[in-house]
Amino acid sequence: MGNNFTSQTTKTFQPKSKTSKGIKKKEGKNPGKMDHFTSEANSIINVRTFGGLSIFVNQILNRSFNITHQLKMGSTIEPPNYTLSTSYSSGNYLLQGNIDQMGTVRGAYFHKLLPRLLMNTNFRISKVNSYDTNFVSSSFEYFGQNSTTEVELSTDHHFVLSHLRTVLPGYSCGVEVKKKIGDQNTQSNAIVALPRSLKVVGKIKKNRDVLSVILSKGPNFFCTQYVKKVTPRIGLASEFLYSSNGQKNHELLSSFAVKYAMRNSKFQTRLTSNGEIYSLLNLKNSSNTYQFSTRINYPKDLYSIGFGMRINANL
């Protein structure tokens, strides 16, 4: 729920599958987190485009502490923004935080309580005093041999319970329930508009092919994704999404994406059924990465072009 750090950090704390001579065993493999359930498809479909100029500078001060600076300007969609981020890790815990020029502060704390039990607390504080912008949430994640269970509670009184399980090698499924504690089914604010939701997921993974399906109620949507690894360097992905928030509010969207990873570069592009094209090219040398981004919307005759630099300024 609004966690900007979870997807980048919990994989580090998640217990690894047992190996035999460097090969992972298929039996009893942990399915991972619910947030990572569609990571194979999202790594290809989610083309992170941007407009204008983006500069990202990373400074590793020591083995535990690093600082990053991010500056964005020249975009026709977003205003100029500067963000300062820090992270500190030591043993079984990790601290992360950032602040931007608008005064919004985000932070996260991860602590491995046991080899298979992870505690995660994150928060967001901004100048806007409302539950949907300012919150604190805490969760406990248990990574079993072939299942993952997560419980989360936040200050906006949302309770989340999810469970993923590997049924057979290559087959996994799960369910996630969200409930607003103390809800009286009123529509007095935007938070109560979605008092509860139920999500059911399933995935089949065979060799280089991955098929995932998501069903959700509150909001109502159906999503299916298919991934095909043609070669270790070339990946294809398709997505079909149907959502409905009312009797006349329906959305149908399909996407096709390609990812080509070379030795020192990576190219991604995505084409959607509503006429949008997202493209991103990453060129990497010994220490820095250069990014070229484009986004085109043919029906609305809109486009954006971006150039980015990721600089490693290690001390």
UniProtKB/TrEMBL annotation:
Pfam families found in the cross-reference section: Porin_3
Keyword hit for Transmembrane: yes
Highest taxon above the source species: Eukaryota
Composition bias, Basic residues: 18-27
Topology relative to the membrane: Multi-pass membrane protein
Chain residue ranges for the region called Disordered: 1-36
Amino acid composition bias (Polar residues), ranges on this chain: 1-15
UniProt subcellular location: Mitochondrion outer membrane
InterPro entries: Porin_dom_sf (IPR023614), Porin_Euk/Tom40 (IPR027246), Tom40 (IPR037930)
Keywords assigned by UniProt, alphabetized: Membrane, Mitochondrion, Mitochondrion outer membrane, Protein transport, Receptor, Transmembrane, Transmembrane beta strand, Transport
PANTHER family: MITOCHONDRIAL IMPORT RECEPTOR SUBUNIT TOM40 (PTHR10802)
Similarity comment: Belongs to the Tom40 family.
Official protein name in the record: Import receptor subunit tom40
UniProt source species: Anaeramoeba flamelloides
